[in-house]
Amino acid sequence: MGLDFNQETFRNDFTFRNSPKAIRRFPFPFHEDGYMYSVNLEPHVPGPKGSVFEHTFDVDEHYVAEMRDRALVLAEDPLRCQSLPHMTLAGWDLLELIMTSKARDYPHWFELHKQGDKWHWINKPLEIEQKFTFGDETTLPYGPMEYITRQTQGDFSLQDHRDDNLWMDAGMITTQADWSLDFDVGMSFHEWHAPVPLAHEKGIFDRALKFLLNLQLGAPVRRFNWTMTVDPLLDTSPETYPQWGPTRASLTPETIGKRMHLRVELQTLIRLPRSNAIAFPIRCYLIKFDELVTVPKWGRRLHRVIRDLPEELAVYKGFARNRPMMLDYLAQYDDGTPTSPGIWPD
Amino acid sequence: MPKTVFEPSIKSRPTYGVLEHRPGTAHLMVADAEGAQALLDLAHSAPPTLWTQAMIVYIPGRSGQQFTQALANLSPSQLHISPSYAAAQPRLHKILQTAHAGLQIYLAGTESLMGQAQAAAMAVGVPHRAVQMEHRGSLARRVQCVHCKGITENVTTDPFECSHCGLNLFVRDHYSRRIAAFQGVNIDAEDPGQVPPAVERFT
Q: Does residue B58 share a domain with residue B127?
């Protein structure tokens, strides 16, 4: 077990790193040498063996350390996990989905035994064993959404479907790219996306909402989002911005390769069976620039994407001030040769 | 046409209309300061029977005595003059908790007043769109500090100092109906101490 998962931290001494294997399977989000918002949804179908798309929920070498970090965040600020009263059923849907998927996809780590509504869950990496009654909150130490998302990498929001809209009425949000669940819980689809620049005018959210309202059971979809993070800090929350904000002003040409990280969100959208809510896992993957450029195609392409990005997006994503230094670093890895289509390493 | 014209903004920023009479079995009206004028204007178009079923909660604020007699002249079934929203809250909650289907809700005045009363109505299950709102008077904002979660009332400048934790916050247009507040975010987080001068933006 100890060999499967890294001993690492996402705070203080920041010992997080990716193994060579983790670098090769990193979900590099740019399929071409440029980036602009689009409704880039595709079916969340199983991808190549070993890739982050192989299973419904990817469990990787960072699993145990990420769960430890989540527990620390929640101990400091319990408002990062909230569920409005009508969302409990969706929480059970999510618990079932995750337990069933993990027990099927990673039987050496997770087991689920069911006898009617008497369930027995075994999570070996986290050394958790729980017998409970499905549907009875009093038999779990937390509500169902909180219980299972304390054991699952990635942030989760649960979206209620009513009045031809989606409402973000529950969530476990501790690895967010600078948005506040506590502020946004209860908002409609367009409201919680309100601060995003350029995309509203392009009709992105109108089209995405229309698509998602028609999301079918058993036909999940996925997309990427991305930003930049100084130091491998999973918890870049607005709540703690005064603590981590100064790091953005502390990069030097000597440290940028080690400290600047491409932060990729693999977002999936999954219709839930009983509640008809939509589960929205937002899985965060971090990679240091020094790690990323070990794949020559990615170094070249990231240089071109960052160079050509509209200023509004660099400001919104919070790296406008560091863009010149990032480009100086990345330019060393861009020899101007063409890149192959698609996201995978050559 | 609404009397207050707001700059175009993002989609979470509330917009307001003009109060109109809607059929109902009871009518709760909550207003502050110049919001009284919206109720008086409603009287021009509404049937006189509206007022026999109307409960008005009015917080005069900076308008003082200016509108109180005119509101009394509407002869509502109840007219409660309150020194502050906080003081009016227990009464409002009682009305909302004991309300029957068919209650119409009319809010008028500042965003802080309307936002808090709307949140109170939502808390008892009234859909937010069923609440009518008309903005009148001050543009001062109610702002939640995203860091300490404290709410500062009557924010007129940007940036401003959080009345709870003391951080200097810039005021976003991002708005939470649940909290009834705009979001305030530390303006000098990346460069501590570099706070631009406060500008009067919301008066």
A: yes
- How far, in Å, are A61, A126, A249, A306 from residue A25 at the CA level? 11, 23, 31, 22
Specify the DSSP element, H or E, that contains A263. strand A260-271
pLDDT tens-digit map of A275-330: 999 999 999 999 999 999 999 999 999 999 999 999 999 999 999 999 999 999 99
Instruction: Decide if B2 is inside a domain.
Output: no
Does the residue B75 lie in any domain? yes
Structural domains of chain A, count? 1
For residue A80, which phi and psi values (nearest 5 degrees)? -75, -10
Backbone angles phi, psi at B153, to 5 degrees: -90, 160
B-chain residues within 8 Å CB-CB of A194?
A: 10-13, 173-174
Do the interacting molecules here have an ipTM over 0.90?
A: yes
Interval B113-148: pLDDT, tens: 999 999 999 999 999 999 999 999 999 999 999 999
Binning pLDDT at 50, 70 and 90, where does residue A2 land? low
Which of B135, B158, B188 delimits the end of a domain? B135
> CA angle at residue A223 from A217 to A224, to 5 degrees?
150
Residue A64: inside a domain: yes
- For residue B178, list chain A residues with Cβ-Cβ distance below 8 A: 185-186
Nearest CA in chain B to A201: B10
Distance CA(B22)–CA(A91), nearest Å, equals 38
Q: Band of the pLDDT at A234, cuts 50, 70, 90?
A: very high
**Nearest chain B alpha carbon to A250:** B190
Full residue range of the structural domain in which residue B147 is found: 141-200
